[in-house]
Amino acid sequence: MNIKILRYGHRLIRDKRITTHCSLVARTFGADEIIIYGDEDEKLKENIEDVEDKWGGSFKLSFGKNWRKDCKKLAKEGYKIVHLTMYGLPVDEAAKEIRKHKKIAVFIGSQKVPPEVYSLADYNVAVANQPHSEVSSLAILLDRIFQGKELKKSFKGGKISLAPSAEGKNILRN
Amino acid sequence: MNIKILRYGHRLIRDKRITTHCSLVARTFGADEIIIYGDEDEKLKENIEDVEDKWGGSFKLSFGKNWRKDCKKLAKEGYKIVHLTMYGLPVDEAAKEIRKHKKIAVFIGSQKVPPEVYSLADYNVAVANQPHSEVSSLAILLDRIFQGKELKKSFKGGKISLAPSAEGKNILRN
């Protein structure tokens, strides 16, 4: 399975931390890549590359120029577009279908998304029909796609990893 | 079950949006209350009260003065302290025990937390032993405690609610 996250409408100062958290969730919860639309943000890219360097894995972050063109291109390549929105269908139902596909592109907003995203998407999916966060929505969607197995994923090539600990920190140097 | 979230180390500008997202996740995923330690932030409180007013429910947000005292007080009242940290034990195992308790206080950091939190906690719990976000960690912990039922929770007394929709927005005025 290949999962790309499309992050719409990133603004340099306002969205810095939320987009960072979205990227880290994408990486840790089993997505392969995040493509960010909006302001280019070299510091954000460096931060995620530093995480990757230290903790391992092969997650990619890049900046896209045109989300419309990219969505159409991805659809042609066989990707199913999943739009996370509180207006959508319940994630537990939707994930049963979504996880059958091999290529998934998950669209998440930061600013309000243009109405055409709702029709362009193959699935409009809600993690509860209540306001919360794209960070938590993305985590729950990926959790439902991978059915909890993502939490046991191992990351190769990092400098450190952790062993679970009941109290304190158990850091392993690889 | 009563669940309180203790948010440690809130800083006015830097943490504004992440603490807002934590509060919204707490509310939507079935916690009863969030207590914030650090800078008092009236705007944040207003924002969450506005959400409550519009979307319903009885979630509370307040600012605490002394997290140490409050943790000790909560422990005396029978609350089990759950500290979310990437160094902890796997959430799926831990949640089986945690959900047996009737009173739970979940401690989440924004800044680095003091080492004593690890020993003060009844459970140090990790949502994957990799870096991501307190927003996603809190969502997954609450999801595991409520075993997915939190996503179907209804909120009473709001002005609007949503009906799930395959495309577009289906807003109900109550």
At CATH level 3, the topology of chain A is Alpha/beta knot
The geometry of chain A reads as globular
CATH architecture of chain A: 3-Layer(aba) Sandwich
Characterize the quaternary organization of these chains: homodimer
Architecture overview:
Two copies of one chain form a homodimer. Chain A has 174 residues and is an alpha/beta fold. The first copy, chain A, has one domain (2-173): Alpha/beta knot (3-Layer(aba) Sandwich). Chain A has helices spanning 16-28, 42-55, 67-76, 91-98, 116-120, 134-146; strands at residues 2-10, 33-38, 60-64, 80-90, 103-109, 123-126, 160-162, 171-173. In chain A, strands 3-2-1-5-4-6 form a six-stranded parallel beta sheet. Chain A has a two-stranded antiparallel ribbon with strand order 7-8. In chain A, helix 1 runs parallel beside helix 6 (134-146) and helix 4 crosses helix 6 (134-146). The first copy, chain A, is globular, with a radius of gyration of 16 Å. The model of chain A has no long low-confidence stretch (mean pLDDT 97).
What labels describe this entry?
homodimer, 174 residues, Alpha/beta knot, 6-stranded parallel beta sheet, two-stranded antiparallel ribbon, 6 helices
Give the topology, please.
The structure is a homodimer of 174-residue chains.
Chain A: E1 2-10, H1 16-28, E2 33-38, H2 42-55, E3 60-64, H3 67-76, E4 80-90, H4 91-98, E5 103-109, H5 116-120, E6 123-126, H6 134-146, E7 160-162, E8 171-173
Parallel strand pairs in A: 1-2, 1-5, 2-3, 4-5, 4-6
Antiparallel strand pairs in A: 7-8
Helix pairs in contact in A: 1-6, 4-6
